[in-house]
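hey can u check if this looks right to u? its 233 residues, i copy pasted from the old doc so theres a chance i mangled smth
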Amino acid sequence: MIEPNRKLANVCTPCGKLGADRVSHESGSGERMSRRERRKSETLRRIEEAGWTLFTTRGYEATSTREIADAADIAAGTLFNYFPEKRSLLIHLMQREIDAAASQAFDTMAHSTLEEELTYLFAALTQCYAKQRRLSRVFIKELLFTDGERRAKSAAWTFDLVKRIGALVRNAQQRGELDPSIEPMAAAQQVFSTHYFGLVTWLGGTIPSRSAQEEQFRASLRLLFRGLGRNAA
């Protein structure tokens, strides 16, 4: 029923050789830029690997930025060029993990009812949080109280997921499951809020277990769909 996740390989088309000296010089500049970009990418990879290893083994609070820089074999100043604060790195790493889980879920999702699709999606996201529950608690706290540019980026990140949920809602409307007059994005925001409330209360310990959290989410979805259904009015 579930197809494996498929990854698309990046394909680069090499430029042909041109005879003009000016064009050759520009091509050489492009190659130098490419090398710089590769170095930046490699530095980022080392930071991500070092940060994730230290956060997941020692804990977020017990890990210093100096230790991350040392593990990544870079200067502390270089680390700050990529991530000015330790929490910025944590948010980046957790969002990367959650993005991967969401993409996997969307790619392998069996087309069914909206309730089943959303249950499948959010079970995958909850599983991602559950793998690093202590780190997830810190992530949620830091995400909620971030400010400035990071807040805007986090809001855009969340909105991207809400848009994908909105597409599922729109498809459900086309199948006749939901009232066609409902704005898909408004419904998607309600669905995400339902998930987020359950996630926060579970991570905080108010809900005793993950299974209880998932059952509460299903019950909340059913209640929500009663209001979104064709006969609600």
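Residues 1-29 have pLDDT under 50 and may be disordered.
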